[in-house]
Amino acid sequence: MKHKKVSFLLCLSMLFGMLCQAEAKAPKYKLIWKEDFNGNRINEKYWSKIPRGGSEWSVHLSDHPSLYEVKKGKLMLHGVQNNGILPNDTADYLTAGIYTKDKFTVGYGKVEVRTKLEGAQSAWPAIWMLPQGGRWPEDGEVDLMERLHKHDYIHQTVHSNYTEVEKETKNPPYGATPKCNPEAFNVYAVEILPDSLVFSINGKPTFSYPNIHKEGQYPFGTPYFLLIDMQIGATWMEAPDPNDYPIKMTVDWVKVYELEQ
């Protein structure tokens, strides 16, 4: 009996030590910016409207004021049919998006965005990050959240030269599709650490992408800016259903933390 008691106490001591060690290794963060969308306009110190571009995600973006709404501590990014809103614009749909490019970046740290999404055929709202001054895909891309159509799950994905050029998407797996209720408010987050990217929804880990130290596999930790946009359509999607629009993406808040070394 004494032997069993000693063994039990030894196991208990080892377990306590492991828990303490795990707690000691847990990353510590310092909040460096919180955006509550107070007021009645976008805070231009941190945000700019994303200009239209030639990529599929940006071909419908517009700076038209009707697409951007800030009230009661929320930001609404709208996606609509272009029924005379911009009569000289050839785009069938118009969307809104903001980013912190050239204004605010984060290296190692944590980013959280609380948002609610409306679904529609070919809707493609996204929360993601790109390197400041970098090149794609060499310098990476981190997708905290992409929702397609009316799906009850979202995409969380990592892009780099390793995944896009070398097509190494399984070693390690470069993405996940966790289920959630996107039409309720959810907190989508990523932790950018030297050894891994850790994704979560409402504080629950959903996917981890480890640094396996392969060339071009882990370009993360350099300054990245944040993009939040209401996208519509792409050649790899079915055409939008006009009956589903207008829709909007509602953003409650954004929090950015710096990793304490």
Could you characterize what this model shows?
The protein has a single domain (28-259), classed as Jelly Rolls, CATH 2.60.120.200. It has helices spanning 2-25, 161-164, and strands at residues 29-35, 48-49, 68-71, 74-81, 93-95, 97-99, 109-117, 123-131, 141-146, 155-159, 175-176, 186-192, 196-201, 204-210, 224-232, 247-259. The chain is mainly β and 261 residues long. The longest helix is centred in the first third of the chain and has 24 residues, at 2-25. The strands form two sheets. Strands 1, 3, 4, 5, 7, 12, 13, 14 and 16 form a nine-stranded antiparallel beta sheet that branches. A seven-stranded antiparallel beta sheet has the order 2-6-15-8-9-10-11. A hairpin with a 3-residue loop joins strand 12 (186-192) and strand 13 (196-201).
